[in-house]
């Protein structure tokens, strides 16, 4: 094998310029493959992290996945008479027996849950009125099942715990209504009730619609304001492993009956878009290495044509066809390995440079950093693809060299 490697290196060094050009193709291909894939993977992980962290992993809502069948259909499934336009009885919306459901959920491992009563209301301050969504929650559970505490710019969740008549509002709502921490505001519900709350905290997530329309209040106060005593219309759940949300949601729905929506189900269209984006990205980036592979093919094919007499002499000396094939395959492997040895550090340099880039998109309030993923799988994929492309590019010329007949070459010379 040592002799085969020495012969392969001698062939490559005999055509230094062409070998260097082919090597640079692999180096640049690996570097750009690594830089672009790390940027795309980083943006995807950043998006999923924001999606997963800023929303419940599972949401139990106060409705059923399929409407209940009417009693007449249950009694006479094959009946000849059909009753249409049957209107169900009017009932107060909410999850029935949510306390019992909460007790059952607390027995499940690696799971945190909290009831929520969300409703629309009108907030008034200094002659200004604005529609908002009241999220009634148990103050002590907010930090466990949501990330809103990470976005607090004034006050804290502890202030909401200390003051049951407090309210936490978004920065955009505070700006539009000229609110500061400590102000009192009037909140009118759809039932006509009015209650005064004190602003104990302000948050800013960077999403204008969320910061303008969402507020957090103690659950008991919202139940009284909306005239829904002992009711909740959502139960939000956080899991230790968010990627188990789909299976856990299905098990919970089978147990409690209410519709349980995982974050994957709620964002299924976005996840499909990310998958398509990854396919396009890997296709485009892989094309760089494919082009570099044609350079290797060209170099090794030229060497095979120029070294046919040497191949014939080697065969005459006792080298087998598989030995000749290995010599030229080794040339592709050497170029691939050297391309990785130079391309991976260059790719790391490009990734580090991308991390220094800061952008301010239109409408954003803060500078954002380019998200770059340094996970090891993409290094392995880049190196493996480069080696594979180099070996495949060398295979056809190597097979052609192995088929050279020494008698014909030597007779012709």
Give an account of the 3D structure.
The chain is an alpha+beta fold and 413 residues long. The chain has two domains: 2-52 and 270-412, no CATH class; 64-70 and 90-258, no CATH class. The protein contains 16 helices and twelve strands. The protein has helices spanning 2-14, 16-53, 71-75, 98-105, 139-145, 157-162, 171-176, 208-213, 219-225, 245-256, 263-266, 268-306, 308-316, 321-355, 376-402, 406-412, and strands at residues 58-61, 111-125, 128-137, 152-155, 166-170, 184-189, 194-203, 214-218, 234-239, 260-262, 358-359, 368-369. A six-stranded mixed beta barrel has the order 2-3-8-5-7-6. A hairpin with a 2-residue loop joins strand 2 and strand 3. The longest helix is centred in the last third of the chain and has 39 residues, at 268-306. It is elongated, with a radius of gyration of 33 Å. It starts with a helix and ends with a helix. 34% of the residues are buried.
């Amino acid at each position: 094998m040592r002799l085969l490697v020495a012969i392969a290196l001698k062939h490559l060094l005999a055509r230094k310029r062409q070998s260097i050009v082919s090597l640079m193709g692999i180096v640049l291909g690996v570097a750009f493959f690594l830089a672009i894939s790390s940027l795309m993977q980083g943006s995807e992980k950043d998006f999923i992290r924001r999606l997963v962290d800023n929303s419940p992993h599972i949401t139990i809502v106060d409705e059923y996945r399929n409407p209940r069948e009417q009693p007449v259909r249950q009694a006479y499934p094959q009946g000849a008479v059909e009753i249409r336009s049957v209107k169900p009885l009017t009932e107060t919306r909410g999850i029935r027996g949510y306390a019992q459901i909460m007790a059952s959920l607390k027995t499940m491992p690696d799971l945190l849950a909290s009831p929520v009563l969300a409703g629309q209301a009108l907030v008034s301050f200094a002659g200004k009125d604005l529609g908002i969504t009241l999220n009634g929650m148990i103050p002590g559970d907010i930090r466990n099942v949501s990330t809103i505490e990470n976005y607090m710019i004034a006050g804290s969740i502890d202030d909401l715990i200390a003051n049951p008549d407090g309210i936490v509002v978004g920065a955009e709502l505070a700006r539009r209504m000229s609110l500061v921490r400590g102000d009192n505001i009037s909140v009118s519900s759809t039932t006509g009730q009015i209650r005064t709350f004190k602003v104990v905290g302000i948050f800013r997530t960077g999403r204008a619609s969320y910061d303008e329309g969402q507020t957090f209040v103690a659950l008991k106060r919202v139940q009284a304001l909306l005239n829904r005593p002992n009711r909740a219309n959502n139960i939000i759940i956080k899991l230790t492993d968010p990627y188990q949300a789909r299976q856990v949601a299905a098990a919970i729905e089978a147990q409690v009956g209410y519709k349980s929506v995982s974050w994957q189900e709620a964002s299924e269209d976005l996840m499909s878009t990310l998958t398509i984006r990854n396919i396009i990205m890997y296709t485009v980036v892989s094309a760089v290495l494919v082009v570099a592979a044609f350079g290797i093919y060209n170099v090794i094919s030229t060497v095979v044509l120029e070294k046919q007499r040497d191949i014939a002499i080697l065969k005459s000396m006792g080298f087998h066809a598989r030995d000749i094939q290995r010599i030229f395959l080794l040339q592709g492997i050497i170029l691939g390995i050297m391309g990785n040895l130079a391309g991976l550090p260059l790719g790391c340099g490009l990734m580090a440079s991308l991390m220094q880039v800061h952008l301010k998109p239109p409408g954003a309030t803060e500078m954002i950093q380019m998200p770059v993923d340094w996970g090891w799988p993409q290094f392995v994929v880049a190196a493996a693809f480069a080696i594979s492309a180099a070996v495949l590019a060398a295979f056809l010329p190597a097979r052609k060299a192995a088929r050279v007949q020494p008698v014909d070459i030597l007779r012709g010379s």
